[in-house]
Design the sequence.
């Protein structure tokens, strides 16, 4: 007998109302990737240590690999797919490209979401605040320096526009 | 008490496989009727920026826009074999193969352009999206018109390149000889602060100078230098792979500690350009060379600060306190690399 439990996930994802009948008891990252096909949410370690799976839950950066999917019911989730498009990038996405704050790209979505959260609550962060905000996001390629500069540049872009 | 130290680390690195080992790359390039170019490269993109560099090489050769080049890379169904991406060889070996493929196709384009312009093929140049004879630069053909004609007239629109980077082996008796076709050089300075009470080492600044031959894309080269320094810093201060009987004992990010943004000091990337006679536009391999000197530079800075040499990494506070004699000596002996059982079975 199939004893799988089902649930209806009703929430807002990237500005759209979502209502989806699906298996319950999974992680938020599984719901976002497997049910909504939001592949920009990356699973690095799956145990809350690398930050690759960072998404915004009601504007707050959370690790979607440690968040039960049910916690998002009735709330608002924003992933990397929700902050800009190929034609209209988020200022931080633009800055990452201009500064070269990206190499293999695996940490990038999580890194950007941490940066977006920082810039939303603190439009003019100093270098120490930027470093603190992304210190939960591991990057093996860039050496972080160009990512920090990207966030600084994005802060300038956003305050002048 | 806080001690201050500065250390230097330097290295020389043989680019590619050397020692007569197979070391080659293959590339193809096609000009479409609309002037866009497709490059097939056997070497893969890992984030180091190889696709970008290969686009730049093709655009440079045909005098077209970088945006008009696409790279199909590392798909055994579609691309030719170029061997592995390793030994800091991809820009050097794959870049040369793409250069050859472009020059192979340019021969056909040059001969067609010479016919259309009624000029000598040896005077044909490709620049700024136009093809012209140096004898009469005013009379030019747009590159996409030329490639359109290439297709309309049924001419060859495909170029092939194969670059062989294998070298002779060194002399069996004397070990003398040119083991590698190219050598890269790098030198780094690290400035540290050592807390004698806690044993903590803080890197304050790293200056990293790498001879890259020619920086085809300076921003990507800086990225390799900065990333390399942070990998070297992790090896010096944090990373300690514990293997017991073939099993990796600390295979989590909470137990195998990587540097975070908070561990990284300001890094000054210094690009040194001494053109390599065989590299594409003088470029040579530089990725590993940017990583290697960091750890010795930091360990030398620790020795400069406290007057004692740490003989194994990482320089975690515990090991530093053993080094300073704050913690008892027998534990210090246990850290010696010769005590690690080998082989582990």
Sequence:
């Amino acid at each position: 007998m199939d004893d799988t439990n089902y649930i209806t996930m009703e929430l807002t994802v990237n500005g759209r109302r979502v209502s989806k009948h699906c298996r319950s008891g999974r992680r938020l990252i599984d719901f976002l990737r497997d049910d909504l096909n939001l592949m920009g949410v990356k699973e690095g370690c799956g145990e809350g240590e690398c930050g690759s799976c960072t998404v915004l839950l009601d504007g707050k950066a959370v690790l979607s690999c440690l968040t039960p999917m049910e916690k998002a019911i009735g709330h608002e989730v924003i992933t990397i797919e929700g902050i800009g498009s190929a034609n209209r990038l988020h200022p931080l996405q633009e800055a990452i490209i201009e500064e070269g704050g990206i190499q293999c790209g695996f940490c990038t979505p999580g890194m950007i979401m941490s940066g977006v959260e920082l810039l939303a609550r603190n439009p003019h962060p100093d270098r120490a605040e930027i470093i603190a905000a992304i210190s939960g996001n591991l990057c093996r390629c860039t050496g972080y320096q160009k990512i920090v500069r990207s966030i600084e540049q994005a802060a300038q872009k956003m305050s002048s526009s | 008490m806080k001690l201050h130290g500065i250390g230097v680390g330097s290295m020389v690195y043989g680019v590619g496989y050397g020692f007569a080992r197979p070391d080659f790359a293959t590339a193809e390039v096609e000009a479409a009727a609309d002037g866009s170019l497709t490059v097939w490269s056997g070497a893969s993109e890992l984030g180091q920026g190889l696709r970008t560099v290969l686009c730049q090489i093709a655009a440079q050769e045909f005098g077209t826009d970088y945006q008009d080049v696409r790279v199909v890379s590392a798909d055994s169904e579609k691309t030719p074999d170029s061997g592995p991406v390793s030994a800091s060889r991809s820009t050097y070996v794959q870049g040369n193969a793409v250069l050859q493929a472009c020059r192979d196709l340019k021969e056909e384009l040059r001969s067609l352009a010479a016919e259309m312009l009624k000029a000598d093929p040896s005077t044909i140049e490709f620049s700024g999206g136009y093809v012209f004879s140096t004898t009469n630069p005013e009379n030019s053909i747009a590159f996409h018109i030329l490639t359109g004609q290439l297709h309309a007239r049924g001419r060859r629109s495909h170029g092939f390149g194969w670059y062989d980077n294998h070298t002779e082996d060194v002399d069996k008796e004397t070990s003398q000889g040119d083991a590698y076709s190219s050598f890269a050089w790098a030198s780094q300075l690290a400035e540290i602060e050592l807390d004698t009470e806690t044993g903590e080492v803080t890197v304050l600044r790293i200056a990293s100078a790498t001879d890259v031959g020619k920086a085809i894309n300076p921003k990507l080269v800086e990225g390799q230098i900065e990333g390399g320094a942070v990998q070297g810093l992790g090896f010096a201060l944090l990373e300690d792979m514990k293997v017991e009987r073939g099993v990796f004992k600390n295979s989590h990010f909470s137990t195998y500690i990587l540097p975070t943004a908070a561990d990284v000091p300001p890094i000054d990337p210094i690009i040194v350009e001494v053109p390599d006679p065989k590299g594409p536009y003088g470029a040579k391999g530089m990725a590993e060379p940017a990583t290697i000197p960091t750890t010795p530079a930091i360990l030398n800075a620790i020795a400069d600060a406290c007057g004692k040499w740490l003989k194994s990494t990482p320089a975690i506070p515990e090991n530093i306190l053993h080094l300073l004699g704050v913690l008892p000596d027998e534990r210090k002996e246990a850290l010696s690399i010769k005590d690690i059982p080998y082989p582990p079975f």
Summary: The longest strand of chain A covers residues 6-13.
